[in-house]
Design a protein that fits this description.
The complex is a heterodimer of chains A (1022) and B (484). In chain A, the strands form 7 sheets. In chain A, strands 4, 6, 7, 9, 13, 16 and 18 form a 7-stranded antiparallel sheet that branches. In chain A, strands 5-8-17-11-12 form a 5-stranded antiparallel sheet, with no helix packed on it. Chain A contains 34 helices and 23 strands. In chain A, 39% of the residues lie in helices and 10% in strands. Chain A folds into 6 domains: 2-122, no CATH class; 123-209 and 726-815, no CATH class; 211-367 and 672-725, no CATH class; 369-396 and 640-663; 418-594, Jelly Rolls, CATH 2.60.120; 820-1022, no CATH class. In chain A, helix 23 (728-741) packs across helix 25 (779-787) and helix 27 packs parallel to helix 30. By secondary structure, chain A is an alpha+beta fold. With 484 residues, chain B is of the alpha/beta class. In chain B, 32% of the residues lie in helices and 16% in strands. Chain B has 13 helices and 17 strands. Chain B has helices spanning 3-15, 25-34, 74-77, 94-97, 135-139, 157-166, 176-184, 246-267, 271-293, 300-306, 316-328, 347-371, 442-452; strands at residues 62-68, 120-123, 128-131, 144-151, 194-198, 226-228, 333-338, 378-383, 387-393, 402-406, 410-415, 423-425, 427-428, 435-437, 440-441, 462-464, 467-469. In chain B, strand 2 (120-123) and strand 3 (128-131) form a beta hairpin. In chain B, helix 8 (246-267) runs antiparallel to helix 9 (271-293) and helix 11 packs parallel to helix 12. The chains are: A alpha+beta (1022), B alpha/beta (484). Chains A and B meet through strand 11, strand 12, helix 26, strand 22 and helix 28 of A and helix 1, helix 2, helix 8, helix 9 and helix 10 of B.
């Protein structure tokens, strides 16, 4: 091994210095070519192998078939492989034209020289155990090991390392990398004041001790673990698995050794004397999606879950694309179809049924201690809001009395709450509809089995709050035109048409009540008046079950008062589309009201109608019951009270949700069935095509099984973190490297197999992997090593020459510069503006999101209500994750459907729009404006500098300050001329206690702060 | 020229593969991609498409995919089987069923035959037979190609829809629209090139339209379909906040641009140049999208053509008008989703309700494209994830009866862009159960859609986890029989 590595070093050195052709190394140079160009048809997958020729083993390549061998060592000219790749005959040439693969001259040259050298064979690099190499020679003194490897490579590439980054950059870089947050103001002061040598090392130590370190690491792990707060399919039911998320945070914070971290998540339940937390850890393997779709066979779903576990283990721990072997042996890596199902056998006897939602056993009853702080925050808000509601009610007394006093003379001559709607009538199917002067409409003529009636009317009402539908018996005596005399109405719709456009807008109806509703269970789904509002012809309002000669009334309360513009028309549509047919309405009338509250929700005299009927002389004469109803109506129309009331209701809902977080929760965990299931190979990966029986087993080409180890999940976990496993430590170190350099040493973190990319610094990768294992799988140790290296601390600035030579920074001659993940951007905006609530753990919260996103996906079944009070400002790791509608404010984020370890980084206009217009960033901008004004109320430059400092941790240059002044001045001028716009602009977010007299000033600074939050520098790891 | 720009522009120009001053979304995405150090990105042309694409002259400049989610019944709508009446209430012969799997919803009930609940009529010169629940479609029968021999491998909604749109039953692969814009790039400066429109229904649904149906899968996230919402904010975060007038936003963005340019000079990072252009594109989208979705410039006659429901924003009919407007603006892939075709019960009332929503507007779209001369280079595809079974679900005689899912045959139609008009393709057996002639697998459909866009489905690949993936997996044959 040692000689091989020396050989490697020589090879790379020679390549780099452009000397004569270097010796060919099988694993590095040949295997990737064979894998990419040949193995698809001549590799490990026996079912797909062509001409019975395999090239993934030396025996296969040398075997003589039909008198020829693919490879004759030492003799390229006699090797069939070589003559075939040179052939010009379309029938002969390899790879065949149909494969769309070709070999470059350089690749052909490598193959030729390798065969000439005797075709020495070897293993793929990642399947050999990592060994430490001596630090490269030429390093002076006692260099940092990472720097020794990196600088050795730089020397060979004739590149110079970059100087250390400026201190404020280093401060910001370290804080984001280690805690996912910008440095706190206090940390910034402390670090900038610490000018003694080793200040940055001390900063690393402090940041590693911060509880935010665990949150940062957890965000990575949750993406890999496909953690979500919902099932993912069909109903997308909510889960209560968040205590596991907190377990992960705690594990990282307490620096649980990675081998133990692994063992507990695989088999915490199987450990002797397992603690509740160890059992909780196994939730890792239950984070997959679950499918409760009606037509699914639960067994099919259960098999999906087992498969998902195997694939996740492959990707996250070992960088193997095991998913490929679900249907056939791997086309490139030495993993057989049967190996896959042996591995799956470890997960095949979980005591689960394949069900989703509440049926997704096994569960652990678990009470988290992390629910308390959020509950107290919710309680504080509720107490405050309850008080405000009460105060608003009291405060409404006086205006109510005035209102009542004004009403009494008004209603003296009688009062009618409802006005009939008169207008044009249409029928879809040809029913004749005629309206009398009193608004009553009679249906005549053809009586189709189904029909829609449409009334288009104008009204003189100043606004509309409700619609009343009166169904009355026809002269012949019945409410319906059916044989039975009954009617079935399936849906109603209210729309408004503007005169100047052909389009209509739909008016939302909040509720419906009726004086009679048939029992839907007895009438094939028809009966309940609420069925009129859901666009579903399978339910609706019906008169069946009672006297068809009896008139019926339904009331519809609008979600919001509707004010019609001049000329606008109201369209009321009645759909009669029942399955049963023949149930059209015979005679009816449609009325509208402008009365708020009880008039639209109860079928009785409207309060003002009753007031008119009682003909009282003054407010004192109104009897208490009526007074109460009148007060209710007044409040329903009294905005100051409504605001307080709905705010209180929201706080109450949130409080109840947080209370649930303090109860015993049902967390999905692993537990074995008493009698294990027999595992089979699944032919072509199909769940119901069972092949040969298999016993639990590992991947023999990766590492051997330890004799005597128990064949359980526990044994599997030990195999994964054994010193003999060549992959786990390398893969983990590579994940960690990604955090700090934006890309791994292996740039395909999900694939360490033959088709993955080769490491940029193989010796360094192996050295770090050994370091991880030999230091007791101490993750903080490896992170400390990386972040204390000069390599990490380089400036990320790039000269034109360096960019040209190494555009993607593979040689690490500079620090990494990349856009921060979107979750860090939200957290940063909260922290920089001082809004951040740094509570650790607890039930998920809901950051701001545009209205209607969940409703659109679920056609209105689910609604997203953003968290309020302090809970809104919690970190993104606690954001509720609905798989079918992931948080909209995150971009380039893992989807949490299956394991993902490669983070995306794109640059699109939609991201720009998010950072410009999302409520979180607007509110943070306003808070930053407030902080700046507080810092320097009368000094523009100082206030602008304060914003810059809080976000970028440096002062602006004079040029930069000039741009900020310009933006601020423009905004000031505008808002001074239009203070109303300023008040609207600053009204984002929750803080109502704004100094509104200074709204223009706040608005101007807020826009400037928003600019700063959108700066490339602000959103970038520099 | 602003002296600040000189250095950064120089770096940018040299760094990128070509001239990136064209600011198409595709080209910009390419720039964004370059930062993704892990991917060894293939070369791209001026509009951000892959070099070498299209592979051959494209018949279709764009696609409008009218997705009918839930599984419309081919037995009521297209696949006429007059002899079925004789089988009413009799058990489906095993020789026909051939062990076909049923969903858990009907696995335990007898498979009693429910003949079509409708009558069929013959239309146009082609004499295509269409169920009477689709009277408007009959009018364009000579313009469309009805494929009766579609078949799939999935029997439940989410896997089947995922399979139809991404070529694999589990989420994680790119949708066909994403593949198209990945391969071909964008010719539009102001709009995304893959846009999704979902019908607004009031009925709560527990069959969500998952966003992975138009997802980017393993492709970079910019190839995800952008959903145009029916709200005052058609694209999420499009609208500037209240109290921030347009001219102030412009001034703020100018300040942002100046500061970002200074930073680019300082750091030498060409990604900053890309970012500046993304913010400018965002600003332009703030105008181009509302202008697109505001139908007030459409004449009254448009709404008459598409039907009364087209006046209601968010309806399928209104979305059909939007689809035509998007096509006019050069958007490459436009996908509509109309949910609620899953008629397990009360076939007559439920299925006709969905027909009413979609029939006239779908037909109107064909007529509208044709009279504008756009049908010849617009490929229109209509269909869902599977069909419905011949056996009744529930008591077959009752109006309550519906039909369960059926993967072995279903009907789709296509029109425009080199598809033979007036053709009925493929045949099923007497029970509309098995395909007996010219079967079209979902992968074949995908191959054909790409073919019309000028893409060889076997050659458009993306390397992920060491494997070169394609939309059609390792299958798919272009359906030559429907191409003119």
């Amino acid at each position: 091994m040692a000689t091989q590595l020396t050989g490697l070093a020589v090879l790379t050195l020679l390549t780099a210095t452009g000397l004569a052709a270097p010796p060919v190394h099988f694993g590095r140079d040949v295997l990737p070519i064979l894998s990419d160009k040949c193995f698809y048809c001549h590799g490990p997958d026996e079912s797909h192998r062509k001409a019975d020729r395999r090239l993934d083993t030396r025996e296969g390549a040398l075997a003589i078939k039909d008198g020829v061998a693919a490879i004759v060592p030492g003799k390229p000219d006699q090797s069939d492989l070589f003559s075939r790749i040179l052939s010009h005959d379309a029938e002969e040439v390899m790879p065949p034209p149909k494969s769309n693969k070709t070999l470059t001259p350089a690749e052909i040259d490598i193959l030729k020289r390798w065969i000439a050298d005797g075709a020495p064979w070897g293993k793929h690099w990642a399947f050999e155990k990592p060994e430490r190499t001596a630090l490269p020679a030429g390093s002076k003194g006692q260099p940092h090991p990472i720097d020794a490897f990196v600088q050795d490579r730089l020397r060979r590439e004739k590149l110079e390392p970059s100087p250390e980054a400026p201190r404020h950059t280093l401060l910001r870089r370290l804080a984001f990398d280690l805690t996912g947050l910008p440095p706190s103001q206090e940390e910034a002061r402390r670090f900038m004041a610490d000018t003694a040598p080793g200040a940055a090392d001390r900063l690393v130590d402090r940041l590693l001790e911060s509880p935010h370190y665990g949150e940062r690491m957890a965000m990575w792990w949750l993406d890999g673990a496909r953690y979500s707060d919902t099932d993912g399919y069909q109903g997308d039911d909510v889960r209560e698995n968040w205590p596991w998320r907190d377990w992960v945070i705690d594990a990282f914070n307490s620096n649980k050794p990675f081998d133990q971290f692994t063992i507990e998540q695989f088999a915490g339940d199987l450990l002797p004397g397992a603690t509740p937390e160890q059992k909780l850890a196994t939730c890792f393997h239950r984070n997959h999606m679950t499918n409760g779709e009606g037509g699914r066979d639960p067994e099919e779903s259960r098999i999906d879950y087992v498969i998902d576990r195997v694939n996740t283990v492959g990707t996250l721990w070992m960088g193997l694309t095991l998913g490929c072997t679900q249907c056939h042996s791997h086309k490139f890596d030495p993993i057989a179809h049967v190996d896959y199902y042996r591995l799956s056998a470890f997960f095949n006897s979980i005591d689960e049924t394949g069900a989703a939602g509440k049926g997704a056993k096994p569960f652990l009853e678990y009470q988290s201690s992390r629910g308390k702080a959020p509950l107290e925050q919710a309680r504080a808000l509720l107490t405050q809001r309850a008080g405000e509601e009460k105060a608003a009610r009291l405060k409404a007394d006086a205006p109510f009395e005035q209102w009542l006093e004004a009403r009494i003379p008004e209603v003296k001559k009688g009062f009618k709450a409802w006005q009939p709607l008169l207008g044009a009538l249409e029928s879809s199917e040809g029913t004749e509809l005629n309206q009398a002067k009193d608004g009553v409409i009679q249906a005549q003529g053809p009586n189709p089995s189904q029909d829609d009636y449409r009334l288009t009317a104008q009204t003189s009402l100043p606004r509309i709050t409700g619609i009343k539908l009166e169904v009355t018996p026809a002269p012949d005596g019945s409410v319906g035109r059916s044989a039975t005399g009954h009617f079935i109405l399936t849906d109603v719709k209210l729309q408004v048409r503007r005169p100047d456009t052909a389009q209509v807008r739909e008016i939302a109806i909040r509720g419906a009540v009726a004086d009679y509703s048939a029992d839907p269970k007895k009438n094939k789904g028809y009966g309940d008046v609420k069925g009129l509002l859901d666009d579903d012809p399978r339910n609706g309002w019906a008169s069946v079950g009672a006297d068809p000669k009896q008139a019926r009334t339904a009331l519809f309360a609008l979600a919001e008062p509707l004010i019609l513009a001049k000329g606008e028309e109201l369209i009321f549509e009645m759909r009669q589309r029942s399955t049963l047919g023949d149930a059209n309405i015979a005679r009816f009338r449609v009325l509208a009201t402008d009365q708020a509250g009880p008039a639209t929700t109860r079928i009785e005299l409207a309060p003002l109608e009753e007031l008119a009927a009682q003909s009282v002389a003054d407010p004192a004469g109104v009897e208490p019951a009526l007074r109460a109803r009148l007060f209710e109506q007044f409040l329903a129309d009294h905005p100051p009270y409504l605001v307080a009331k709905t705010a209180w209701e929201r706080a109450n809902r949130q409080f109840k949700e947080m209370q649930r977080g303090n109860e015993k929760l049902k967390v999905m965990v692993l537990a074995e069935k008493k009698v294990p299931r027999q595992t089979h190979v699944l032919v072509r990966g199909l769940w119901d095509k069972k092949g040969e029986k298999v016993q639990p087993g590992i991947l023999p080409a990766i590492a051997p099984w330890t004799e005597g180890e128990e064949t359980t999940r526990l044994g599997l976990a030990r195999w994964i973190v054994s010193r003999d496993n060549p992959l786990t430590a390398r893969v983990m170190v590579n994940h960690l490297w990604q955090f700090f350099f934006g890309a791994g040493l292996v740039r395909t973190p999900e694939d360490f197999g033959l088709q993955g990319q080769q490491p940029t610094h193989p010796e360094l990768l192996d050295w770090l992997a050994c370091e991880l294992m030999e230091h007791g799988w101490d993750i903080k140790h490896v992170i400390r090593l990386i972040t204390t290296s000069a390599t990490y601390r380089q400036s990320s600035h790039a000269s034109e020459a360096l960019l040209a030579k190494d555009p993607s920074n593979r040689f690490l001659a500079r620090g990494a510069r990349f856009r921060l993940p979107s979750w860090m951007l939200r957290d940063a905006a909260l922290a920089e503006s001082g809004l951040l609530n740094s509570t650790l753990g607890g039930p998920p919260i809901r950051p701001y999101q545009p209205e209607g996103v969940w409703e659109e996906i679920f056609m209105g079944r689910l609604r997203y209500e953003p968290s309020e009070g302090a809970l809104q400002y919690r970190r993104t790791v606690y954001a509720f994750w609905r798989r079918s509608a992931a948080p909209t404010f995150l971009f380039d984020a893992a989807q949490r459907r299956v394991c993902e370890v490669q983070s995306q980084r794109t640059n699109t206009p939609l991201q720009a729009l998010t950072l410009l217009n999302d409520e979180t960033y607007l509110e943070a901008s306003r808070a930053l404006a407030g902080a700046a004004l507080k810092h320097a109320p009368n000094d523009t430059d100082a206030a602008l500098t304060e914003i810059y400092r809080r976000v970028l941790f440096r002062a602006p240059s004079e040029l930069e300050l000039g741009v900020l002044r310009r933006t601020l001045a423009e905004a000031r001028t505008h808002y001074r001329q239009d203070p109303q716009a300023a008040r609207q602009f600053v009204a984002h977010g929750q803080d109502r206690a704004l100094p509104l007299n200074k709204a223009e000033e706040v608005a101007a600074y807020m826009l400037t702060a928003s600019l700063v939050l959108n700066l490339d520098e602000a959103i970038t790891h520099e | 020229m602003n002296p600040l720009l000189t250095h950064s522009e120089a770096v940018t120009r040299r760094y990128f593969l070509g001239q990136c001053t064209g600011v198409s979304l595709g080209a910009m995405a390419l720039e964004g991609l370059l930062q993704n150090a892990a991917a060894s990105e293939p070369e791209r042309n001026a509009v951000g498409g892959l070099t070498g694409l299209p592979h051959f002259a494209a018949k279709a400049k764009r696609v409008i995919f009218l997705t009918q989610s839930g599984g419309p019944s081919q037995i009521e709508l297209f696949d006429e089987k007059p002899d079925l009446a004789k089988w009413a209430g009799k058990e489906l012969p095993d020789s026909v069923r051939q062990g076909q799997r049923l969903t858990a919803m009907t696995a335990n009930q007898k498979q009693l035959i429910l003949p079509s609940r409708t009558q069929f009529r013959r239309h146009g010169q082609s004499g295509a037979s269409v169920g009477e629940w689709l009277p408007h479609l009959g009018k364009v029968a000579d313009d469309i190609c009805i494929i009766k021999s579609m078949h799939t491998e999935q029997i439940n909604h989410a896997p089947a829809m995922t399979f139809l749109l991404t070529g694999h039953q589990l989420p994680g692969r790119p949708s066909v629209g994403g593949w198209a814009s990945y391969g071909l790039g964008s010719t539009n400066r102001n709009l995304p090139d893959y846009i999704v429109l979902i019908s607004k229904m009031q009925r709560p649904s527990d069959q969500p339209l998952y966003d992975h149906y138009w997802g980017n899968g393993f492709l970079p996230s910019r190839y995800q379909g952008v959903k145009l919402r029916n709200s005052k904010e058609p694209v999420l975060y499009l609208q500037d906040p209240e109290g921030l007038p347009r001219e102030l936003r412009r001034g703020m963005l100018d300040g942002l641009k100046d500061l970002n340019q200074m930073r680019q000079n300082e750091t030498g990072d060409p990604e900053i140049g890309t970012r500046i252009r993304q913010y400018e594109m965002a600003y332009r989208m703030q105008t181009s999208v509302p202008e697109l979705t505001d139908l007030s410039d459409e004449p009254e006659e448009t709404f008459e053509l598409y039907g009364a429901d087209s006046r209601r924003p968010g309806s399928y009919a209104a979305n059909c008008i939007l689809a035509r407007r998007l096509a006019e603006r050069g958007v490459r892939f436009i996908q509509l989703f109309h949910p609620d075709w899953d008629h397990h019960s009360r076939l007559t009332s439920w299925c006709t309700a969905r027909c009413r929503d979609t029939d006239q507007p779908s037909a109107a779209l064909i007529q509208d494209l044709k009279r504008r001369g756009m049908l010849e280079d617009t490929l229109v595809v209509w269909g869902g994830e599977f069909g419905r079974g011949v056996a009744g679900q529930g008591d077959w005689q009752s109006p309550e009866a519906g039909r369960d899912h059926h993967p072995r045959c279903f009907t789709m139609w296509m029109a425009g862009a080199g598809i033979k008009p007036g053709l009925t393709y493929g045949r099923t057996d007497d029970f509309s159960y098995n395909v007996v002639e010219n079967g079209v697998h979902v992968h074949d459909l995908q191959a054909t859609i790409l073919q019309q866009l000028g893409i060889d489905h076997e050659r458009l690949t993306y390397r992920f986890q060491g494997r070169d993936f394609r939309l059609t997996d390792v299958h798919g044959k272009v359906v030559k029989g429907i191409l003119s």
